[in-house]
Amino acid sequence: MKNSSWFVVINPKAGSGKAKKIWEKTKKELTRLEVSFDYSISEYAGHEQEISKNAVVNGYSQIISIGGDGTTQKVVRGVYMQDKIPAKNVLIGVIPSGTGNDWIKSHGIPLDYKKALSIVIKKKTKTQDLGKIEVLGNKPGVYHFINYAGAGFDCFVLSRLKQYKKFGPLSYFLCAIANFMKFKNIPVTIELDALKIKSSVFLLGVGLCSFTGGGMRLTKDADPFDGYFNITVAQDFTKYDIIKNLPKLFNGGIFKDKKVFTYKSKKVKIFSAKEGVVSQIDGEVLEKGSLVYSIVKGGFTFCSP
Length: 305
Fold this sequence. Notes:
single chain; alpha+beta; Rossmann fold; Tumour Suppressor Smad4; 2 domains; two-stranded antiparallel ribbon; about 25% helix; about 35% strand
């Protein structure tokens, strides 16, 4: 293994192009510090997973992700696509440069690229749980996520987010304000470890960490180390409920609403009697289908302050 060298994966489009600029600065800093590295820049959506998979196959066990939560998630996914070494043995460092940068908020990783790089180089590690989702339907697939998965309003917002990304972390909130009148609650059945729920959901969150969507708090008391998902079910929301709760998405106030319920579970199944459910993981909208979530305990090893 090329244990002393890093392989850098860059998503130049992350953060509306911010990642490309941060990479140029990071490359100079790596060179100045005489850190051994190779790199590859993604050329299309999802390319990051192919790059990271090939990097591990070619002998790298240390990867730096430059981009947002979605970039890091795809890097981790690529690591799990290879079988040369156990995925948990691959160390991943993160230089945050996305739109929301939510995963880093749970771990105290700074936005400043020099400070983030300093953490990477020191190689102090932590291992958090990883989420695994199986989508069962016409286009089945298996994916991993590092932060938050959801179904309902957040997917609806993400599908319309592109034109708002220029506003950075505020983009999610502005998109939600502009589009909430068009959303309709989704009838689903939810199966947890010891509970079955039939609900018409506004928001259905399956979280490992606390933040998503540019700082929104959609999971209560999330702990990415405890082996459980934190599930949030906001059901039967009217348009008035949405207006009342939109500001509360950012301060945890939504959990005080009588139509919002929270649970902990190691496994989650979500399906609809009428049709499949559209879901998202770390900002990536997936194909419609029935959803099966499970925990990969300690599945993600990363550089931590």
